[in-house]
From TrEMBL:
It is found in: Endoplasmic reticulum; Membrane. It is a multi-pass membrane protein. InterPro entries: LPLAT_7/PORCN-like, MBOAT_fam. One of its GO terms (molecular function) is lysophospholipid acyltransferase activity. This is Lysophospholipid acyltransferase 5. GO terms for biological process: lipid modification; phosphatidylcholine biosynthetic process. The keyword Nucleotide-binding does not apply. It is an enzyme of class 2 (transferase). It comes from Ocypus brunnipes. The keyword Iron-sulfur does not apply. Its main location: endoplasmic reticulum.
Amino acid sequence: VGASEPALRLLLTILAGYPLALIHRNFVYEKPAKLQHLYFILTGFVLGFMNYGLEMFHSVFAVVFSYLTLVIFRGTSTCVAITFIFNMAYLLIGYYYSGTNDYDINWTMPQCVLVLRLIGLAFDLYDGNQPEADLSASNKEVALRVRPTILEYGAHMFFPASFLIGPQFPMKRYQDFVASEFGDGPDCIIPGLKRLLLGILYLIIFQGFGMFVTDDLILSDEFGGMSFFKRCLLIGIWGRVALYKYISCWLLTEGACIMFGLTYNGKDSEGNAKWDGLANVNIWKLECATEFNHYIQSFNTNTNHWVAQYIYKRLKFLGNRFLSQASALIFLAIWHGFHSGYYVCFFFEFMVMFMEKDIHGILDKNPHVKNFFSSPIMTTLVYIALRLYTFVFMGWCMIPFVLLSFGNYMRAYYMLNYMGAIFFLPWPIV
């Protein structure tokens, strides 16, 4: 079906999280914490080694170095700065020496997940050493008053169901999980299997449609010769298929995390346990999006939450929301790598959100416009228009993120008559 060997190996090791979760539930859960830590370290390392061999020791080195930083500098700003600079620099050097012109599945993939976890833990320990009155409500929930033990720390970093591609979760959640504060074991098996089946469904859709709506197609002369409407429709389908690659993997890893019991999120109004604490995608909101903010709220939500908590909110001293947002997006682009496509993609995200927030403000302040669009017919027409708008332009915004190199994404933009640039870039002048 056209899958590469590294991609197939990664998929198999993601699926291995399910039997590992069952083994943990039946033989390790509620056992002494040290035994659980060792189980997670060993299984996570083995899964990484199966994918990347000896290159796994890049991750081991980063984990050991960062822990020594925590020991020597404790929960200070110096500790945060060294952890941040070292891990970002190590990741970027890895990108430089191991990257190609394509999307790479190599040791830098788990490393980029690990970088956020290491930096986040340093911030949490720093927050734990600050007066509680100075912390926000979200920071209070994850702040660490005591440095984790080396085993606890290693198990958090190499947790087998999240080490390879995420999701992100704080040390505090891991500590509560190991302490058996997340409900009874059997309750999470069925929810985990449901997420597994949904992930397999999206994987089948991605692999099936991906064989026909390919990157080569949208770069071909055949694509350029199609009618403009057909090109818009195809770029929307192509962009949605590109999203499904990530969505399928996140659903599979989330299902494994659910089966471990890590995703416990309290109980609903009927007293049933909720297992959505690490949900990385909101399928319903994403599939029904009528504005780009819906995509942001429903896609890669754990990483978005991490960036909001550890980058965006900590730039409050800049005194400007747009500067903080731009800085957070620049961080995300750098975190992804050196390909210019990442920077163009996040630039367009900034411009799209800038325009949508302005338009929301204009509509909210103009009751005549709101009344005009409030009739059933106009509401239906607007809904259809917004569904088409998000569907087509999400494909446009995904072009540089997927094609990466300047020559490729500029050719695709040319094939689409630069419609996104014409639509979004003039808005600040307007």
